[in-house]
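Let us work through a complete example step by step.
Step 1: write down the sequence.
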Amino acid sequence: MKIDFQNQIVRTAVFSYAGVREYKAFICRRDFFPGSGDAEDEMEVSNDRQCECFEVCFENFLSVGEVCASGGFFETLAEAISHTEKSWGFVKWI
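Step 2: predict the structure and record it as tokens.
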């Protein structure tokens, strides 16, 4: 997926793959928090929600400018930042 949500990017981080190749991760503001869809979960977890939240998106290091994976959705920016900084390969914020 091409990155076409520039106005939704809140933070950008640089990651390193085995010290050989760099790629980026983006924390993006979203207005949709996907639920688990599992009927055994509580409704707050199971159902999708319309709310401000943040998604961590990882760039495809073989195709710059394309997102290849989601690192998850978070209710707060602080949670998204913490998750990103603890992810394997994190180098720095830019």
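Step 3: interpret the result. The longest strand covers residues 21-33.
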